[in-house]
Amino acid sequence: MLGISAARLEAHWSSDSQLDIVVTNGTVRIQWAILWRDLDALLRIDDNGDGIYPESEWGKRADDVNLYAASHLGVRLDGTVGALEPGAIRSMEAIDGVYGILEFLIRGVGDPEKVELDYRLFEGLDPHHRGLVRLTGAGQVQTAILDQIEPQQVFILARPNPREQFWDFGRKGVYHIWTGADHLLFLLALLLPSVLRWRDGRWEPVERLGQAGWAVLKVVTCFTVAHSLTLGLAAAGVVSLPPRPVETVIALSVALAAANNLRPIWRGGEAGMAFGFGLVHGFGFASILLDLGLSARSLLWPLAGFNAGVELGQLACVAVFFPVAAAMRGKAVYPNHVLRWGSGAILLVSAGWAMERATGGEWMPF
């Protein structure tokens, strides 16, 4: 069974479901973990609204749950549609909520060479929802991340294609960094002063653009090296940290970087902050790979692709930010308004995230 979201606190995504699919002895066995609160929003499972979801509540809607799930997952085996036969349902509590564990069987499939999935859970309801898939068959383990942008995936059981895995996880890495507001705001907070320097108690524009370019290069390189290191270690299971403190520290890192722009303590220390806090951000990036429950043998291409995608997403953001900041650096509006008010807004948002994650509350709108 997939590792149920031990590393995810909904910091980057609204919800995930997790599918563990095993093709063996002429049968396809599916275990599908879906948050009860996600199903409740659609099927009204929680009678008293306490968020606990005992069997006395979901048991009354078990048939509806199975019917909804089965009607939103298409499985083809060598081109033939597989009929999902529902099995037992049970609950499992995890750090990010209570999951319903659904079981389905597809019988009489022989020895298929190709499995095609079409994932439509919560289609049109939650644009950020994903299905994390681990497929085992023909002695191979393959993975995929299905969402409303790319809901379909084709698996060749005997011949998994490393290149396809690399590109698939690369795309997910780009999407992850672009939708991970805390990571983006941390990077932005470090980049905002890159075209300025602190002198005599105030920010001034750098004299040469090359100075600003070098500052940006140092920040991005240090952040990349740091989070790549811990991303690899965490995804491989070498280092494991509790998720709530990790996500709280990530939010605090954003707040500290923004506060440093308002009253510099680490003058010229943006690269050092990028490296130090980048180590913690790497554990946040690893959440998606940890949720897939990959073995070390199966990890290489997804990890390489995902990390490459994260870096590409970062560079795209820098490519948009730097020319604009460089062009504005000599105008008073940049240090007096863009830097000051931008950093202030980042500080307020990230402080809210930190309190929310430390206490387990839910009051931030994003």
General description of the model:
With 366 residues, the chain is α+β, with helices and mostly antiparallel strands. The chain folds into two domains: 16-160, no CATH class; 170-359. The protein has helices at 36-43, 55-58, 62-70, 162-179, 181-191, 209-235, 243-262, 270-285, 287-291, 296-328, 333-359, and strands at residues 16-24, 27-35, 73-77, 80-81, 85-94, 97-106, 114-119, 130-137, 140-147, 152-156, 196-199, 202-205. The strands form three sheets. The protein has a six-stranded mixed β-sheet with strand order 5-6-2-1-8-9. A hairpin with a 2-residue loop joins strand 3 (73-77) and strand 4.
Give a nutshell description of this structure.
With 366 residues, the protein is α+β, with helices and mostly antiparallel strands. It is 49% helix and 22% strand.
Please state the structural category.
alpha+beta
What is the count of β-strands? 12
Strand content: 15-25%
Helix content: 40-55%
Radius of gyration: 23 Å
Gross morphology:
elongated
Main sheet record: 6 strands, mixed
Number of helices: 11
Distance between the termini: 30 Å
Q: Strands of the largest sheet, in order across it?
A: 5-6-2-1-8-9
Runs in which pLDDT lies below 50 for 5 or more consecutive residues are: 1-13
Order of helices and strands: EEHHHEEEEEEEEHHEEHHHHHH
Any idea how many domains? 2
The pLDDT mean sits at 87
